[in-house]
């Protein structure tokens, strides 16, 4: 996925349900960052290490852990760093319990935020990604979640590229080995369970362009690293930027029922840019989707429609479209004319 435009430049089984494993911790972090932004939590708050967190996510569990001490208290910032760098299951549970009281209540918060972000193919049941038959996500959703974190919380993104973290006298390297490879990778999260295999959500900044890649179901850490590296390298070299609509350019017009003007112009939020395989612009087609009839008044800047761009009939990008001007309610003649049109023809 191209970060700036959201263009999906390569996909395979992008919407198939998958076990997210520790990549689910990206959703945990999204909730935590939102709580900090809302002022309900601060980086300096200290959360208690319960017996449940210690037993379920600690050293005795056999999974990735922070090695948090039972009945101790740990700063939120240290817990965040552990979740990102060490993939600490105990740290994720401690955050969930500190914010919501329990993993179950925190999972409700995860799903509420997932809906707000638009993750239609995901359902979360715990903050760790530990196996649960009811929890699932998709490659498309994980890429969108990564994009959301980078875009909305740049002040915390530096944690993802930290090479290591020490806690309780134990030093652990960042589980995303691509961070140390010198190819611009600075995030985001790896995951692994026996059933799911090895996966990762990876992001790289290639100068003037950022890419996000998701791989999943691989057989080893080495294969995960190599496949993600190849995907990111190919994406950086094989595609070109194309801007079909400049900032403020009218993309289309939408009908307004009973408005002072019969239509309202639709524009993007800034320019609308795509990344496409070099030399493949001829594959493009697009549709405009909105719920009709649009009723006045319409205020400039209102979100009205969605542009859906296809390459060889495969959806590669969608972008919101907004009212380019204000349309007030029309006079009696205009409303009567539109009413007759709808009666005779339906709303086209």
TrEMBL record:
Biological processes annotated in GO: cell wall organization; peptidoglycan biosynthetic process; proteolysis; regulation of cell shape
Pathway: Cell wall biogenesis; peptidoglycan biosynthesis
Domain Peptidase S11 D-Ala-D-Ala carboxypeptidase A C-terminal: from-to ranges: 239-329
Keywords: Carboxypeptidase, Cell shape, Cell wall biogenesis/degradation, Hydrolase, Peptidoglycan synthesis, Protease, Signal
Annotated positions binding substrate: 189
EC number: 3.4.16.4
An example Gene Ontology molecular-function term: serine-type D-Ala-D-Ala carboxypeptidase activity
Superkingdom of origin organism: Bacteria
Enzyme class of the recorded protein, top EC level: hydrolase
Active site residues according to the UniProt entry: 22 (acyl-ester intermediate), 25 (proton acceptor), 87
Catalytic activity: Preferential cleavage: (Ac)2-L-Lys-D-Ala-|-D-Ala. Also transpeptidation of peptidyl-alanyl moieties that are N-acyl substituents of D-alanine
Hydrolase in keyword set: yes
Role: Removes C-terminal D-alanyl residues from sugar-peptide cell wall precursors.
Family: Belongs to the peptidase S11 family.
Protein name: serine-type D-Ala-D-Ala carboxypeptidase
Organism: Devosia sediminis
Organism classification: Bacteria, Pseudomonadati, Pseudomonadota, Alphaproteobacteria, Hyphomicrobiales
């Amino acid at each position: 996925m191209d970060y700036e435009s959201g263009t999906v430049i390569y996909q395979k089984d992008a919407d198939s349900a998958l076990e997210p494993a520790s990549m689910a911790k990206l959703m945990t972090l999204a909730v935590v960052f939102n709580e900090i932004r809302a002022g309900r939590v601060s980086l300096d708050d200290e959360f208690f290490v319960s017996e449940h967190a210690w037993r379920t996510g600690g050293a005795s569990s056999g999974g990735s852990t922070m090695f948090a001490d039972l009945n101790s208290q740990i700063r939120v910032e240290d817990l965040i760093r552990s979740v990102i760098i060490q993939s600490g299951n105990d740290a994720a549970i401690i955050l969930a319990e500190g914010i919501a009281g329990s993993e179950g209540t925190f999972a409700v918060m995860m799903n509420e935020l997932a809906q707000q972000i638009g993750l239609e193919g995901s359902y979360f049941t715990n903050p760790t990604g530990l196996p649960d038959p009811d929890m699932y996500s998709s490659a498309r959703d994980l890429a969108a979640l990564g994009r959301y974190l980078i875009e909305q919380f740049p002040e915390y993104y530096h944690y993802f590229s930290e090479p290591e973290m020490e806690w309780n006298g134990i030093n652990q390297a960042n589980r995303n080995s691509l961070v140390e490879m010198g190819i611009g990778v600075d995030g985001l999260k790896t995951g692994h369970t026996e059933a799911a295999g090895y996966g990762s959500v990876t992001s790289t900044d290639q100068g003037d362009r950022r890419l996000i890649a998701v791989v999943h179901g691989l057989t080893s850490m080495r294969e995960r690293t190599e496949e993600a590296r190849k995907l990111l390298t190919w994406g950086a070299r094989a595609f070109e930027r194309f801007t079909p609509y400049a900032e403020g350019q009218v993309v289309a017009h939408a009908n307004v029922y009973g408005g002072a003007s019969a239509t309202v112009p639709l524009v993007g939020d800034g320019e609308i840019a795509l990344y496409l395989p070099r030399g493949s612009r001829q594959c493009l087609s697009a549709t405009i989707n909105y719920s009709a009839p649009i009723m006045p008044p319409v205020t400039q800047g209102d979100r009205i429609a969605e542009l859906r761009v296809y390459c060889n009939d495969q959806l590669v990008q969608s972008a919101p479209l907004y009212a380019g001007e204000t349309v007030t309610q029309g006079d009696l003649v205009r409303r009567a004319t539109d009413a007759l049109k709808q009666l005779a023809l339906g709303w086209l």
